[in-house]
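During data preparation, we tokenized the protein backbone, and the record follows.
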Amino acid sequence: MASVRNKVNPLLCNIPYVLTWPRFGFRTICSGRLGFAPSTSSSLADTDTPVAGKKVLETFSEEFEIGSRKITLETGKIARFANGSVVLAMEETKVLSTVASSKGDAVRDFLPLTVDYQEKQFAQGVIPTTYMRREGAPKERELLCGRLIDRPIRPLFPSGFYHEVQVMASVLSSDGKQDPDIMAANASSAALMLSDIPWGGPIGVIRIGRISGQFVVNPSMDELSISDLNLVYACTRDKTLMMDVQAREISEKDLEAALRLAHPEAVKYLDPQIRLAAKAGKQKKEYKLSMVSEKTFEKIENLAKEPIEAVFTDPTYGKFERGEALEKITQDIKRALEEGDDEDLKILPKTVDTVRKQVVHRRIISEGIRVDGRHLDEVRPLYCEAGNLPVLHGSALFSRGDTQVLCTVTLGAPGDAQRLDSLVGPSSKRFMLHYSFPPFCTNEVGKRTGLNRREVGHGTLAEKALLAVLPPEDVFPYAVRINSEVMASDGSTSMATVCGGSMALMDAGIPLREHVAGLSVGLISEVDPSTGEIKDYRILTDILGLEDHLGDMDFKIAGTRNGITAIQLDIKPAGIPLDIICESLHPALKGRLQILEHMEREISAPRIQDDRYSPRLVTLKYSNDALRLLIGPVGALKRKIEDETGARMSVSDGTLTIVAKNQLVMEKVQAKVDFIIGREIEIGGVYKGIVVSVKEYGAFVEFNGGQQGLLHISELSHETVSRVSDVVSVGQQLSLMCVGQDVRGNIKLSLKATQPRPKSKTDISIDEPIAPTSQEVNVWTAIEDVSNEQEKQGATAGPETIDSTSKSATQAVLIRSAAECDEEEKSDVLNSKGDNGSQSASKSDKTRIPSSLSESGLSSRNAKKSKRGKDAILDFISDDESDEDDGLSSRNAKKSKRGKDAILDFISDDESDEDDATSKTPMSANKLNLGMKVTAKVHQIRALGLVLDLGCGIRGMYRFEPGEKRDFEVGDELRVKCSSFSTKGIPVLSLVRRVI
């Protein structure tokens, strides 16, 4: 229905009143009517002075519904000077499309059609974040949407119409619910219908999704995110024009069902456009068509037909030899027609090309033999090579006939993902495929410029094809970039990119679900000149570049053995019946399986990478305060680490992700991060630190983000050390293992624990307790590492402790500095002198041998008694040791050692008796303390440890030691000792002995 809206225009108040008289007929028509009328009829009778008029815009609109979405077409209000303009609205999203054509009659042999699609940030109420606060060059999405509009409208321009035409589509407003690309395509069709440009439309463009097996017409963006099919389909009333598909391995049968549904839904767009054009459209203008006369065409055909047939029937010609022979034929005909009309000479290449097309079509339909001598369903010879560039993360070379593509894979941190500024869809993408078509691949000279529409389109098609088989982000957090360089082009380089990209991803160790391959299917048809209907046709598998140029269809289909992942259909005639499109799916599947078999022979599983070149990714958890310390002012410290190491770091809420080229770089950057902000300290963890001070009893080492730990003299070496300064010095960098915490809260570090133990001279092996190994970080290198890591996360504890084992094995402990220890040392000495002034007491304090009984589960009364008794014995041992250091004879030393061993055996027996007495009392969580020995039963056996039942519902975990026999059975009784607790309070136990 037509609607009329009036608005006061103050700019027209001074127009002479006589010009507003309706009887003079002062009107301008431009996609509507513009007139001037008096404000009211009564005002004319009351006064003779001119009054302000009203501007009348006559607008026309059509409303209809498709897929439960209300759609409106409107013209006459906006962009009235354009040759044709339409605003299409779907809910709150509106798109303006305009059409204009040049007025000149320049002679050309091609259609200079330009389609521009633009999304400006004002459409969603946002100011651009660029420096100039303006939109810059067209983004990839804008180029892709422009191609989506161009492909279905181009074949419908009449033959010989070579006038310049420009279609511009702009998003006026976007609610984020609908993708404006389909709306822009339908609006452009309506604008062409309203214009005076000859065009064989209208067309309808529809999107089909599939959710839980049910097809959805015009799905919203939220629905599209959970759909396994994204089909864009364009057609006229009875023929298909364009198809674009992204899917998750959809079968040919299901895709055909989607196409059968899409066609009638797309046809619903046609009648509203026809009605709108009948109300507000312009009369089609008579444009001069660049047509060759029948007489000239017959003359050219007679001269060119036989030489062209001779070239096409010789399969020994290569791509360039055939091209040179055809160009020589054109030059010979040009010399023969030099005395003719100049316009005939200007369109001579186009006419010769028409003759070539007729020759090729007639030979293929009648004989079934193609230009290069292949059968219709034959695939060209294949060559595959994976890993040809071993220094890279992944690489592959794929050749099909004369088409050759080199694909490389580069892995990066999650922060390397591409950021998108589109009005709809995700804000970033972690998988990128960049396709390059350099001039040398066709033996031409050219200049490389910015984004190319063809390169963006081909790269996006290959990207869609491979995206369906990538592992999910939670399993594979890398950002991935595939770079495809076309080395030689003779047809379907985008499908060669799919094949090469799939092999390169496998070579990089990425766990793809399946290999993906693709090829292009062509069509050679014979058309009835009177009706325009196809009388006969042949479907070609794996078309050459020449067959693409002279044929009627370029149907690119990519997928796995299980189904299709991506499709792009381009045609040259004004539509192809849908039945032929569906028939083409089956030879495409046959050819795809042949290529997949060849690719799987080259590489069939993700490759295990060499540590020298394989990338490493680590995800670490920190507090946000610690991450702010790492980033530094405006990210300066983070950038400095990245520049020095070559690694990439990504920071999110509480998470730091590091990606390095290899393990050596990873260790380097982790050392820098640990020194700045540290990690949660774990018993058994190895840390790099710097000696900051040397004492008589040991050295203080700064490590793990500026924290300090004590390296006791007894932990310097497996051999006896008389002076600390003989082994370490201030400023020396060491790799140390955290072995525990003493009674004063100091972290105990060990240097000898990181060194191999020398063999005993008497060949008697002495078993020492080994600190539990630190939990490995989540490093992904190949599919085997992923499975091992998942096994580790679930194997060390039962269902109650799975969450706790994913973190540190022990709680974070307090680390005291050297200065604090010195102050406490002084105060202890003063206190000891004030109490009794005995030299033995101060000596005992200075030795600081921690008592294991202070960590036992005894009552406070028994613990005090035991501590007093042990302190006296240990004071005696200390005095005896000091006498030995002063130079006792070896005989006295042996006696002292024998006496000390007896005393220590007495202490051990006393402790075990007390522990036995304690273990007989009912167990509870409050009574279980560090150092306590209890009897436990094996509750569950995991891959890397045991889950032990301590009684009263208390469960603990025991980790297998390297080389330990693992012949445990559920129900076995073990004598264990509580060595630490996890961050959630789960006891971590060490084995004392088995109970028989």
